[in-house]
């Protein structure tokens, strides 16, 4: 067996097709991850309560409660990175999955190596520009990268890991415009052809948490046709 | 698909449109009716006028002839005087021949002996009272001849018919005018009626166009008119059936998509597990594994293409537009497609942004490069250019070229050209270029296969895209 950086990292795969589940489990174990399995939503939620995983992989089409609902339930009390798996790459499924709280998505059939790359990107710690900087302040918004904390008017905000990394990325150069491509590469680890909707949906979710009025954002603003920036 | 199917034509083609034909029918009908009416009116009036005039003329001529006959008996009366005393209420001119060639006339300027028709003269000479209608001195006349045998004389009277002619001419003009006016009115009526009748057809035409353009829930309003009700009813039924069928096809494609992707997922994951242990396998197993891996990739590509095509067929496509720098994009797309091809562009393309669907455009470039790989030993260059509001991306090769008659057909599905018969490693099934055309058309652009214009042998595939961002 080869040894990898992610030894000890646990991945929960929620998939009703036993063949796919087994094949994906084998491939992920080859990458060095530890894999937990669930074949329906209820079981996945119960298992997660007993043994929290580091990453959750959810198939959208599940018997009983569907993948979107599993995703929303997990999000209520966890910021665990979630990857949605869809058999249809139509816009509706992708956006609905991201809106439900997923951090990334993959379309079947995908190469397990691609999945590993996505997982590694999601598990990466948030980077700070200068190690010495302990807190960044933007008006009523305060970011403490070392502790992974964000406060708005001194109240703690609950951001997912991906939302937090997105915010820290924008905060690394206040006032600079980040294109979707750059954010996709730095936050999600995608190449040039990543899906810009990932950025758009996450920015939208981030705004509902850090903006007083998400429809008229004052911190994270859109620069039409170019991307996003954090107002200094 | 639909292009090759023989179409069912309900009616043979006609040269004139329906509206023109209705108008024409109205015009012909009006012409016929007004023509016949005018003709009958003219004839009846004419006969009436002429008959009356003839009867009156003959009566007067007969009584004048009797008067002449009576007075010729009286001595010392100049026969010329007799003629002047005759009553001529119709402005007729009495003429008398005494003996065999002595002519007397009341008005030689209007009616002289030379004006007497020879046939009429002959008849009267033979003792037969006669009349004849003919023209002299540029005017129509009725000439009545009465023989007076016991006086050795012939009496003639020329009754002018000019006023009748004038009347008839006025009548003719009036009737012709009437016919013309009623024909024009009929043409207008026909045009209006045709428009009225055809307006539901136009609505149906517009609805059909809307459906063809993808608005499948287009329906016609229910008609209260009994005749039109059936048409709108059956049209709506057709539209509903069509919509249901397309939606069913769409669901089918989506289900097939799921059914195909699941086993492919298992295959892909298992194949990777096997490949992780490839080094520990015997040579023969390694070779078999490589074959499996290559063909699985090929199979996945084919399934993806078929699913993409089926999405186009059910109209379930939408563009994911975003703005990006075209030169950077093309470089990236060429790189991701795994081809080492130089990308060149003039200075004016630097920093040029376009608005398009990245994924689709990347497929376009990848498929064109793959196509060059298969048929022309690889592309030799990719050029980007700008022409006003459009951007062209050209993929060049130095292959055998595309024959003129195949330049359009190569973008059809499952078309692999004449030499497409060769199906070596990695050759597709002819979906690549058809997908190129579909993706480009979706952007409102065009793609063409042209011979190279720089003197080299080979083909250039030119993709023209609108959407230069400002």
Explain this structure to me?
The complex is a heterodimer of chains A (232) and B (470). Chain A has 232 residues and is of the alpha/beta class. In chain A, 39% of the residues lie in helices and 19% in strands. Chain A has helices spanning 18-30, 41-50, 67-77, 91-99, 112-123, 161-171, 180-188, 196-210; strands at residues 10-14, 34-38, 55-59, 82-86, 104-107, 136-138, 141-144, 149-152, 155-156, 220-223, 227-230. In chain A, the strands form 3 sheets. Chain A has a 5-stranded parallel beta sheet with strand order 2-1-3-4-5, with helices on both faces. Chain A has a 4-stranded antiparallel beta sheet with strand order 6-7-8-9, covered by helices on one side. In chain A, helix 3 links the parallel strand 3 (55-59) and strand 4. The model of chain A is unreliable at 1-6 (pLDDT under 50). Chain B has 470 residues and is an alpha+beta fold. Chain B folds into 3 domains: 20-167, 2-Layer Sandwich (Beta-Lactamase); 248-313, Helix Hairpins (Orthogonal Bundle), CATH 1.10.287; 321-466, 2-Layer Sandwich (Heat Shock Protein 90), CATH 3.30.565. Chain B has 9 helices and 12 strands. Chain B has helices spanning 18-72, 79-85, 118-125, 162-212, 226-276, 283-313, 326-336, 358-376, 432-442, and strands spanning 93-98, 102-105, 130-136, 139-148, 153-160, 321-325, 343-344, 353-357, 379-387, 390-397, 446-451, 459-465. Chain B has a 5-stranded antiparallel beta sheet with strand order 2-1-5-4-3, with helices on both faces. Chain B has a 5-stranded mixed beta sheet with strand order 7-9-10-12-11. The radius of gyration of chain B is 49 Å and the shape is rod-shaped. Classes of the chains: A alpha/beta (232), B alpha+beta (470).
């Amino acid at each position: 067996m080869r040894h990898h950086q992610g030894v000890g990292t646990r991945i929960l795969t929620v998939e009703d097709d036993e063949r796919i589940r087994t094949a994906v489990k084998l491939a992920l174990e080859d990458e060095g991850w530890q894999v937990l399995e669930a074949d329906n939503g209820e079981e996945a939620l119960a298992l997660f309560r007993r043994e929290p995983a580091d990453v959750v992989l959810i198939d959208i089409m599940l018997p009983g409660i569907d993948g979107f609902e599993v995703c929303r339930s997990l999000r209520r009390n966890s910021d665990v990175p979630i990857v949605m798996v869809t058999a249809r790459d139509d816009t509706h499924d992708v956006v609905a999955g991201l809106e439900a709280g997923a951090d990334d998505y993959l379309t079947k059939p995908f190469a397990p190596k691609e999945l590993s790359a996505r997982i590694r990107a999601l598990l990466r710690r948030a980077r700070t520009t200068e190690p010495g900087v302990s807190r960044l302040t933007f008006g009523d918004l305060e970011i403490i990268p070392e502790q992974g904390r964000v406060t708005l008017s001194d109240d703690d905000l609950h951001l997912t890991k991906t939302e937090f990394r997105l915010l820290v990325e924008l905060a690394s150069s206040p006032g600079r415009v980040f294109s979707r491509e750059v954010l996709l590469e730095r936050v999600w680890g995608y190449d040039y052809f990543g899906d810009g909707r990932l950025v758009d949906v996450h920015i939208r979710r981030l705004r509902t948490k850090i903006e007083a009025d998400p429809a008229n954002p004052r911190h994270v603003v859109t620069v039409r046709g170019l991307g996003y920036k954090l107002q200094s | 698909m639909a292009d090759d199917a023989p179409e069912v034509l309900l009616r043979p083609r006609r040269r004139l449109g329906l509206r023109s034909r209705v108008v024409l029918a109205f015009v012909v009908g009006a012409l016929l009716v007004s023509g016949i009416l005018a003709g009958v009116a003219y004839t009846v009036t004419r006969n009436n006028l002429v008959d009356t005039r003839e009867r009156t003329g003959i009566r007067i001529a007969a009584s004048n002839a009797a008067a002449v006959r009576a007075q010729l008996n009286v001595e010392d009366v100049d026969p010329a005087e007799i003629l002047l005393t005759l009553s001529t209420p119709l402005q007729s001119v009495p003429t008398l021949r005494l003996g065999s060639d002595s002519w007397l006339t009341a008005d030689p300027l209007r009616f002289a002996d030379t004006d007497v028709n020879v046939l009429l003269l002959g008849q009267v000479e033979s003792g037969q009272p006669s009349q004849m209608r003919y023209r002299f001195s540029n005017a129509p006349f009725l000439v009545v001849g009465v023989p007076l045998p016991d006086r050795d004389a012939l009496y003639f009277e020329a009754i002018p018919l000019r006023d009748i002619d004038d009347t008839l001419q006025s009548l003719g003009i009036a009737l012709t005018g009437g016919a013309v006016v009623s024909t024009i009115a009929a043409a207008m009526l026909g045009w209006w009626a045709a428009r009225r009748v055809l307006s539901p057809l136009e609505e149906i035409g517009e609805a059909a166009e809307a459906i063809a353009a993808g608005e499948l829930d287009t329906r016609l309003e229910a008609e209260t008119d009994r005749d039109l009700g059936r048409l709108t009813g059956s049209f709506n039924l057709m539209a509903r059936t069509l919509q249901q069928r397309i939606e069913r096809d769409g669901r089918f494609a989506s289900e097939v998509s799921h059914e195909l992707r699941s086993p492919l997922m298992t295959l892909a994951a298992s194949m990777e597990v096997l490949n992780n242990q490839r080094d520990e396998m015997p040579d023969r197993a390694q070779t078999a594994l490589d074959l499996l891996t290559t063909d699985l990739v090929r199979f996945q590509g084919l399934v993806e293409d078929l699913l993409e095509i089926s999405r186009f067929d059910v109209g379930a496509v939408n563009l994911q537009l975003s703005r990006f720098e075209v030169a950077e994009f093309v470089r990236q797309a060429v790189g991701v497609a795994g081809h080492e091809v130089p990308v060149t562009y003039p200075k004016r393309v630097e920093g040029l942004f376009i608005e398009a669907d990245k994924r689709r455009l990347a497929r376009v470039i990848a498929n064109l490069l793959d196509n060059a790989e298969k048929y022309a030993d690889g592309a030799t260059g990719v050029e980007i250019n700008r022409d006003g509001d459009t951007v062209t991306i050209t993929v060049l090769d130095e292959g055998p070229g595309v024959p003129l008659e195949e330049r359009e057909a190569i973008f059809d599905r499952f078309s692999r050209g004449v030499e497409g018969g060769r199906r070596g490693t990695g050759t597709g099934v002819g979906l690549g270029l058809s997908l190129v055309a579909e993706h480009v058309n979706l952007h409102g652009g065009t793609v063409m296969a042209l011979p190279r214009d720089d003197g080299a042998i080979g083909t250039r595939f030119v993709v023209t895209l609108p959407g230069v961002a400002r």
